[in-house]
Predict the 3D structure of the following.
Amino acid sequence: MSSKQNKTLLSITDLCIDGFSNNRWHQIVKHVNLGLDHGDILGLIGESGAGKSTIGIAAMGYAKPGCRITQGSIKFDNLELTTATEEEKRILRGSRIAYVAQSAAASFNPAHKLIDQFSECVVQHGIGSRQQAYADAKDLYNRIKMPDPNRIGFRYPHQVSGGQLQRAMTAMALSCRPNLIIFDEPTTALDVTTQIEVLSTIRDIVQQFNTAAIYISHDLAIVAQMADKILVLRDGEPIEEAETRTMISNPKQKYTKSLWAVRSFQKSKTSLNPQTRPHIKVERVTAAYTKSTDDVLIDVNFEIMQGETVAIVGESGSGKSTMARVITGLLPPKNGMVFYEGAQLPDDYRNRTAQQLQKIQMIYQMPDTAINPRHKIRHIVGRQLSLHLDLEGDAKQRRLEDLMDMVDMTPTRYLDRYPEELSGGQKQRVCIARALAANPSFVICDEVTSALDKIIAEGILRLLDRLQQELKLAYMFITHDLATVKAIADRVVVMRQGCIVEQGSRSEVFDPPYHEYTELLLSSVPEMDPDWMDRVIANRLQKNRMQPAKI
Amino acid sequence: MISKSEPSIVTSKTKYFFTELMGAPLSAKIGILIVVIYIFVALFAPLLAPFGESELVGKKYQPWNNTFLLGTDNLGRDMLSRILFGARNTVGIAFLTTLVAFLIGGICGIFAAVVGRWIDQVLCRIVDILMAIPLLIFAMLLLSIFGTSIPSLILIIGILDATRVFRISRAVSLNIVVMDFIEAAKLQGESLFRITIREILPNIFSPLAAEFGLRFCYVFLTISALSFLGLGIQPPTADWGSMVRATADLITFGDYTPLIPAAAIAALTVGVNFIVDWFLHIHSRLQDEL
């Protein structure tokens, strides 16, 4: 902290970057200015496609293949990076500027031990010997509170958890004590409970070494914890820049306000008729992927009434998606049964009747892989109509148009398009239309909003809610995002390691007193308050529970 | 409504095809030109050839002259006419054989990928066994057992080559099978056949089409090699491989007539490969490094 110097470490002025697509150049970053001193943390915020990552890597003087820096200057410690030679930049990278990528799992080399990847940069840049690097790695692993810091470095990337890997990557970025680290969505792929640990590690380490950082994220609540100031981007254009606290309490621009207001959606009240018979009933289900492996689901029981939304919540690996596979029949359970309207469903989907298949539909997390890229929307949605409802010709066309209208897409414009001509949100709407085409009574939504930007996700949630009102659908909503659950669920099932920890109505689960694990989940959801993380960590230290990932 | 929109799609596809074609690199255009010439010759051989396919029209081993532009072979048949007819036989048989290989190998490959479990295992092991024996030797062995008729030639080479097609179509299908839309299709109650044809095939079509071009070259060379060895297409049918063999003696006298059918084989192989390279380039969706 004492070494704070007064000259600007990184200054970007009037930066423009072009990207090449559809056979021509488009401007994807437009006249961006930013400056960073030693120890400063800048948050870059925006939806996908806003140019955050492009600016992030441009700060290292790099442009991805298919991109070119057309205008402006990037000065790092008085070196002009736009005109510097490859060799000058190579010396900087790793030693003075480091980069932490979104997916640590994809960025580590699976064939080398963590500690060897840590020391590679140190040895390469001639900063120290391998032995010194090893010692330093152990010290850093200790400081970032990795379990067993003296030995964990000798593991391979697949032998540690996702959160640990992301922390190891942060340590690796620090190996040469850089002046600037660029964090590109470092926690997006992690569970909320793990995320908070990684965040606090990053913040501690950046403070300890007085490192400047650019923190890129689409999640405002997270950036609010990390950054001193925030720059909001939209379509490559800077919209607003301010100190974090000012930005949170008093955003000036309309677009920024809309980002802030995103989590305002609240499900309309469902009036449930008192019913005796559950629509879907899962009874004492135990399931495993192969006979020899451990059970992924253990003695799971729950019910879903007609027209209600049940949210299944839990960390990754808790068995949420496996539950969906058991209900749809893709994974026959070892024990237990699934009932539809009181009648037992055959375990295997191949033994189910067309009518049984028709009534249970599924919407997937990744709309890109959930629809066949080689078929037109007309075929994707229409196939259900001819298969299950025997609709052909004019009747089919009318129904197709109805369905497209239902999901707010103009039929004449979209029916004859291929999926690649649609945006992510539109593809998800097509998936919804396909599910609805079969006239289902029960729809499984598997993380349907987690691959989408917040504003678009909000639109999908509103759509699902409206459809539920109109068509009296029952939803099973699988998600790890508690904000979504609070917005949409009637009842909540909390899962951990294949067991149901708690279930009940939304208010029973989310109002105090909490179940211990539910409380942990809830307290890990970032809030739009710059002091949130300090408060939570202080609380947890008080309760002497600093290792929430391993309860 | 559907039928009305159909023609516009067709024209737009044709238009797309021609725009791609005009923008093709020179090598691809040369390749297309070669293939078009070969197809033309194969189709119109009887009209183009001055003499019949196996007609004895002159003396043995006549040099090039005005009547016999490329001379005559060991029995006194016109070389030019036989080369033109050879395009029809060699290329036609190679094309049919490749088609057989793709029908068998492609369908089994996708099937193995979709069904998985023991069916996949059994099919893979059978293919391993077939692939363990060198193709040419195995083909010679089978041909001497079943006799060297054209149908048995097509079937034997087709089945042996299907093993290679099986491997590639299974591998590319495995990437598609794990996609959510296949799961969605299963849950819609689609049949296995429909999943194979409608859901998977369109997605693996480009790598398979490129493989078809390459495979065609290999089949073509295998058949020519077999013919050269006397086990392929039998006389008097004109065939480039056996023509090289029949006139091979001439090379010792400094006459390069036997090289002409060999060059015909080489030119077609190069031409097809040019097209395949271009096709792969379009469909790899790789941006050119800028």
